[in-house]
């Protein structure tokens, strides 16, 4: 039976069904070389220039495991409270697709390096913060695939494209997959829990120093699994939305898939187990292909690689390199900054915790750092549908803006224009100020000339001020601000105006 509606309102879906989530997060490690060969891993190189017989799967080539990648994976597992296997193997995951030159991917199947962990996350609700424990099924190593570009079509997808190009530079880069156990019981908070989990996971990976976790460059990607069930009934069939590449999109993908599946089920239809493609422009997903089962990949042990058997001494040595646990760090920062739970959670929800921390470390007071990252910059990022990091604004630039504001060379309105210029690629703070002519007009003679012009245009306002209605000064101040394109200090204009008219507050 076909559905009568593509989606139904979220609140109706949640009233009828309980959502169950599963998140598979892929983290590209920041190693200098690939997982099984010495090819470099730098992002942005010319296509197919960072390849060799090993990562191209040419006959006779033999892989060797990257020790740093194994270390990073163990540290990730320890930070996620996982157990570390004493012995595990790689496997061949067979599938035929042009982004994997060997026609198989070296991965780990039934013997992951790390398993049975957890990560606690917090989401803001109407009743205050609420904690969720997300249990981790496994953390395993594999190699990344190449990158396909579908050209000539309207959507960038393979359907409708005239031809496809493949770049194997990414093939073989160390890729760690972190798989959660089913996340149930979140109800209407499910989209927020998913976003909070990926946000905290990203911050943790950055703190560990194992990856730059730049979602816009693909070094952190998330596959979002969603299924629905009526209360008290077994979990339903799941769908998997592939390669969601922003925190905002993780939340939207869960939200829209709950609405879609609920519409299918309430109209008498059946949810199909499949992969789906998320579309940033619409916030919806479209069908991809039927989802394979494990047996479809015909896993078998990789014969060209020896097992990985980390000693207990090595694991404990790596445990000693772990950064401060996320919960401890957040409690410390909240106390150091002296802000409320609500204000701190606002920073976390915006995905700005690391940015605010780095900005404070650069010398900006926490109130100003918080103001810019969770205010104007978050607004711009949301309008553009991107993450804060991808705006290109640095802590050092915020420090420079604050220095200019403190000296009176800029006001907040002009500072916002400075950030617009930085994001537009017009240069650093001082370059944007100079190019756009954004310095505050502080010359008394220029301000008095603007005040006189405004008084001449509004003589009735001048009489009101002289008559004791000092609040009417706002009209003149507004005219001067308009005449100076917002580049005057409003408080100074007001003081000069009252002095000009011989009026005291």
Kindly summarize this structure in a few lines.
The protein is of the alpha+beta class. Helix content is 38%, strand content 20%.
Distance between the termini: 76 Å
Number of domains: 3
C-alpha geometry: elongated
Helix content: 25-40%
| Percent of residues in beta strands | 15-25%
| Rg on CA atoms, Å | 28 Å
Low-confidence segments, ≥5 residues, pLDDT <50?
A: none
Number of strands: 15
Mean of residue pLDDT values: 88
Structural class call reads: alpha+beta
Largest pleated sheet: 10 strands, mixed
How many helices in DSSP terms?
16
Structural features, described:
By secondary structure, the chain is α+β, with helices and mostly antiparallel strands. The chain folds into 3 domains: 10-317, no CATH class; 324-436, no CATH class; 444-501, Arc Repressor Mutant, subunit A (Orthogonal Bundle). Helices cover 38% and strands 20% of the residues. The protein is built from 16 helices and 15 strands. The strands form 3 sheets. Strands 1, 2, 5, 6, 9, 10, 11, 12, 13 and 14 form a 10-stranded mixed beta sheet that branches. Strand 5 (114-125) and strand 6 (128-143) form a beta hairpin. It is elongated. The N and C termini lie far apart (76 Å). The model has no long low-confidence stretch (mean pLDDT 88).
Q: What is the strand and helix layout of this fold?
A:
Elements: H1 10-16, E1 18-28, H2 67-79, E2 83-84, E3 91-94, E4 104-107, E5 114-125, E6 128-143, E7 147-151, E8 163-167, E9 174-180, E10 183-184, H3 190-208, E11 220-229, E12 239-244, H4 247-266, E13 274-279, E14 284-290, E15 300-301, H5 312-319, H6 326-337, H7 341-349, H8 353-361, H9 366-384, H10 395-406, H11 412-423, H12 429-436, H13 444-457, H14 459-466, H15 473-483, H16 490-501
Parallel strand pairs: 12-13
Antiparallel strand pairs: 1-9, 1-10, 1-11, 2-5, 3-4, 3-15, 5-6, 6-9, 7-8, 11-12, 13-14
């Amino acid at each position: 039976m076909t559905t009568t509606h593509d989606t139904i309102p979220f609140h109706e879906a949640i009233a009828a069904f309980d959502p169950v989530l599963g998140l598979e997060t892929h983290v590209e490690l920041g190693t200098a070389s690939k997982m099984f060969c010495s090819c470099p891993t730098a992002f942005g190189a010319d296509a197919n220039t960072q390849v060799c017989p090993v990562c191209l799967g040419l006959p006779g080539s033999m892989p060797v495991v990257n020790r740093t990648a194994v270390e990073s994976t163990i540290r990730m597992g320890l930070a996620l409270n996982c157990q570390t296997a004493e012995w595990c193997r790689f496997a061949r995951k067979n599938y035929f697709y042009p982004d994997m030159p060997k026609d198989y991917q070296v991965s780990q199947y039934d013997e992951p390096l790390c398993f049975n962990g957890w990560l606690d996350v917090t989401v803001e609700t109407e009743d205050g913060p609420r904690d969720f424990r997300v249990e981790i099924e496994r953390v395993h190593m594999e190699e990344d695939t190449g990158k396909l570009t579908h050209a000539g079509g309207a959507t960038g997808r393979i359907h409708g494209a005239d031809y496809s190009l493949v770049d194997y530079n990414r093939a073989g880069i160390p890729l760690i997959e972190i798989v959660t156990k089913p996340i149930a019981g979140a109800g209407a908070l499910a989209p927020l829990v998913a976003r909070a989990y990926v946000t905290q996971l990203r911050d943790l990976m950055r703190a560990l120093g194992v990856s730059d976790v730049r979602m816009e460059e693909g070094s952190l990607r998330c596959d979002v699994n969603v299924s629905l069930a009526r209360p008290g009934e077994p979990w339903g069939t799941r769908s998997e939305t592939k390669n969601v590449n922003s925190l905002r999109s993780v939340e939207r993908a869960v939200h829209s898939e709950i609405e879609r599946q609920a519409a299918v089920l309430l109209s008498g239809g059946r949810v199909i187990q499949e992969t789906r493609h998320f579309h940033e422009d619409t916030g919806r997903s479209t069908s991809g292909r039927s989802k394979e089962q494990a047996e479809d990949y015909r896993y078998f042990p990789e014969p060209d690689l020896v097992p990985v058997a980390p000693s207990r001494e090595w694991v404990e040595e790596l445990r000693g390199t772990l950064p401060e646990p996320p919960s401890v760090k957040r409690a410390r920062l909240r106390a150091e900054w002296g802000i409320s739970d609500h204000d701190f959670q606002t920073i976390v929800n915006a995905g700005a915790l690391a940015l605010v921390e780095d900005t404070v470390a650069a010398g900006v007071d926490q109130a100003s750092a918080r103001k810019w990252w969770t205010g104007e910059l978050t607004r711009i990022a949301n309008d553009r549908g991107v993450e804060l990091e991808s705006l290109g604004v640095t802590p050092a630039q915020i420090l420079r803006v604050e220095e200019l504001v403190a000296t009176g060379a800029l006001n907040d309105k002009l500072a916002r224009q400075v950030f617009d210029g930085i994001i537009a690629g017009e240069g650093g703070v001082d370059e944007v100020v100079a190019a756009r002519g954004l310095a505050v007009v502080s010359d008394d003679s220029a301000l008095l000339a603007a005040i006189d012009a405004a008084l001449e245009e509004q003589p009735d306002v001048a009489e009101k001020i002289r008559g004791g209605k000092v609040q009417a000064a706002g009209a003149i101040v507004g005219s001067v601000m308009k005449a100076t394109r917002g580049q005057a200090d409003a408080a100074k204009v007001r003081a000069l105006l009252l002095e000009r008219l011989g009026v005291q507050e």
